[in-house]
Design a protein that fits this description.
Layout lengths: L1 E9 L4 H36 L1 H4 L4 H10 L6 H15 L8 H23 L20 E4 L5 E4 L2 E4 L3 E4 L5 H8 L3 E11 L2 E11 L7 E10 L5 E3 L4 E2 L3 H19 L5 H35 E6 L2 H7 L15 H31 L3 E4 L26 E3 L6 E3 H20 L33 E4 L6
Parallel strand pairs: 1-15, 8-11, 11-12
Antiparallel strand pairs: 1-7, 2-6, 3-4, 4-5, 6-7, 8-9, 9-10, 13-14
The chain binds zinc ion (ZN).
């Protein structure tokens, strides 16, 4: 079965290449902002046609006709058409970059506009999406290439349109071998900068041949904890890497330092860079540990049960005071909330993202418990549900049947039981995700892509080391 898979490599660009990469990302941002400016201008013009001042001169019908004639470019083809007409004037230097860079920015804008209108119409699930903002100078730099000379040249080099051949810091062997054997096809390449480092991510269509899980009928539940990284219903406890706590302490310290620094100062920029590097280390460390866990789960068990993503968000992170209109009391609180979210809440999403595709590879199923399922408050022995269970209480004590068990293990056991009920109801115990079956058993698509594009699909990111295989 062909799946979409992303291979990500850190680049080792020369100075010349580095500036070419930056230039392409800048061009992408330029096109995005230019397009957004155009859209705003057209909307304004359309509104003006309908406005009172004009109505005195024109009849209502005439004003409406005038408004209708103002075309607001809302899709990629429309935006591209306008861009190709205007680029000679607004960006006489356009030839310096691959045309893909401008297309990438316009594509991101078109998708943002689409998300906005779908959200407004109510046809889009998830958090509501506002009208796109101008991309600021310090926005994350990235650019996507979809056509042209995109290739893996050899075990240490990749190639991109206009930018040319770039050395990689990590070996590209794994992808190269797949490409050579005709088992993979590159669909697009995205370059991005993170804390001063450059990366290239190749989205590919890959023909995978994975062995099925060793215990295809087994059902396990997973609870992600704050104390431990995760607890599996089999009793297995996955500890948090000690490095993680160290980085997190440092992140908190740097966060405080940042808020003390004067805006626009060089010291502030330096602290910000340090914080970004630290953030990256935390993310990578946690991702690596989760990769080891999810690979083991997907290759072993047929069904894995996790709790709904919303659950933890509602309980764990300390919330800053809200002003009622959705804004926060002051910036400091929001920043702190952001930090805590980064530490605690990214895990369930990442766990689910990895499990989603790995289970598909190995023919397993992911069951996501209903968001109202009280996995923590229920007794895993007798099913009694507690009215209250403070987060600080690490041990579950049942007043009904005298069960005493670790809080997280209790939750994991409940999730496993939930999964067994779902499997029993759907009667697809031995059927895998590829064979269809009960819709609830089908893994939900990844929530959101890391590049924030919100593009649906089964694209997954695997590091060059391929620990996900
Ligand atoms: Zn009980």
């Amino acid at each position: 079965m062909p799946v979409h898979q992303a291979f990500r490599f850190e680049l080792d660009p020369s100075d010349r290449t580095r500036s070419a990469l930056a230039s392409h990302c800048g061009a992408s941002r330029f096109a995005y902002n230019w397009g957004l400016g155009l859209v705003n201008e057209r909307i304004e013009r359309r509104d003006r046609a309908r406005s009172e001042a004009l109505k005195e001169l024109l009849s209502d019908d005439e004003a409406e006709e005038l408004a209708r004639r103002v075309e607001v470019p809302w899709t990629l083809p429309a935006l591209r058409r306008e861009w190709n007409r205007d680029k000679h004037v607004v960006a006489p230097w356009w030839k310096e970059n691959s045309k893909e860079s401008y297309s990438s920015g316009l594509d991101a804008l078109a998708r943002a506009l689409k998300n906005f209108s779908e959200s407004k119409r109510g046809t889009r699930t998830g958090a509501s999406v506002g009208f796109p903002h101008k991309k600021k100078r310090w926005a994350r730099r990235s650019c996507r290439f979809t056509t042209g000379a995109i290739a893996v040249v050899d075990d240490r080099h990749v190639q991109l349109p206009r930018v040319g051949t770039i050395r990689t810091k990590e070996p590209t062997v794994k992808l190269r071998r797949l490409l050579d054997r005709g088992r993979a096809r590159i669909l697009s390449a995205t370059i991005s900068e993170e804390a001063g480092r450059w990366f290239a991510s190749f989205t590919c269509e890959v023909e995978r041949e994975d062995p099925t899980a060793t215990q295809p009928t087994a059902v396990v539940g997973i609870d992600l904890g704050v104390k431990h990284l995760a607890v599996v219903s089999t009793g297995e406890v996955v500890e948090r890497p000690t490095a993680l706590s160290r980085y997190e302490r440092r992140m908190r310290r740097l966060g405080r330092e940042l808020s003390r620094r004067q805006k626009g100062s060089r010291r502030r920029a330096r602290t910000r860079a340090r914080l970004a590097r630290c953030h990256r280390k935390v993310t990578n460390t946690r991702r690596d540990v989760l990769h080891q866990l999810t690979t083991r789960l997907a290759t072993t068990y047929g069904t894995v049960v996790v709790e709904d993503l919303h659950v933890r968000g509602m309980t764990a992170a300390p919330k800053p005071a809200e002003n009622g209109d959705g804004s926060y009391a002051h910036n400091g609180a929001r920043r702190k909330a952001g930090l805590n979210r980064a530490i605690l809440d990214a895990s369930p999403a990442e766990l689910r993202r990895q499990l989603t595709y790995k289970l598909i590879w190995h023919g397993g199923d992911l069951v996501v418990a209903d968001r109202w399922f009280p996995s923590s408050k229920t007794c895993s022995a007798c099913g009694e549900v507690k009215a209250k269970l403070p987060l600080a209480e690490r041990t579950y004590r049942c007043e009904h049947c005298d069960l005493v068990v670790d809080r997280d293990l209790n939750a994991a056991l409940n999730l496993a039981a939930y999964g067994r009920r779902v499997v029993a109801v759907s009667g697809t115990e031995t059927q895998n995700a590829r064979g269809g079956g009960h819709p609830r058993l089908r893994p939900k698509p990844p929530v959101k892509r890391e590049d924030g594009s919100g593009q649906p699909g089964r694209t997954v990111t695997v590091s060059s080391q391929g620990e996900a295989a």
